[in-house]
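dumping this here before i forget
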Amino acid sequence: MKTKIPDNLKAELPQNTWGKVLGTTPIIMTVIATLLAGIASSEMTHAQYDRSLAAQLQSKAGDQWSYFQAKKLRGALQQNTLELLQATLPVPPLNSAEVTAALTTLKAPAIAATLAALEKTELPTAPPGPVIAPNVQTALDALAAARPETDVADLLTKVTEDDLSAAMSAAKAQALAFDGVIKPVTANLDHVEKLLTKPGADRATLQGFTAARLRFGTARYDNEARLNQVVGNVFELQVRKSNASAERHHKRSARFFYGMLAAQMGVVISTFALAARQKSLLWSLAAAAGLIAVSFSGWVFLRM
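structure:
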């Protein structure tokens, strides 16, 4: 868009401040309108990007919830198997001496943690990792408690994208840390199970070991599901944050567009002022066309 005042019209303008205003206003309003149109387009692009990002994050959140459900299902299967075993067979207590003897043949680490897992259903403790920021933890607690969306949105206004990224890293680090300490224990349990299932092994010892391992498996999968739930909830917060950002950019785009329309109206009005001074039919037609365009835009805004 380019506005140019004819030279003969410039010559007829009064050579004072008012004349300069009349001569430069259409150009200035055109520049402002063009600038606002570019900003409105940029804001809309930001909104579309944030919507697309929210869709990608929602897909990742869905994958994480599927993983969470799989862990919960495994834990439930372990518990159901234990209850079925106890209902159909007399399950003796765990023979700790036999299990200890089987573990002494190992050179693997986590032997003490393996005994604690069988005797006390005690999960190994992962080393401390990054801590989730308090403002993010508050939003996570609100999400887990199924509080209204408006409450979660208000809490997210105090959370930055960097906070959420750090929380995601911390949640994944916690899950990976637990996975690192649980693997040696499960490897030891597999070793003991192989020894107890050999021909000639005591059946009662195997039954007690199986029941203890099922109890441990239930606790393990429940804990892993909780860790996965935290990761999934952080994804959900990122989705909400991205959608809120998209909505904000969308509103800003609309308001900048209205500003652009106001600037266009300024072009029309200033041109009309020139036309009124010079009584030019061409400028009057341009003013009429501008007014029609503004009126049509208003009708679209109000009716569509």
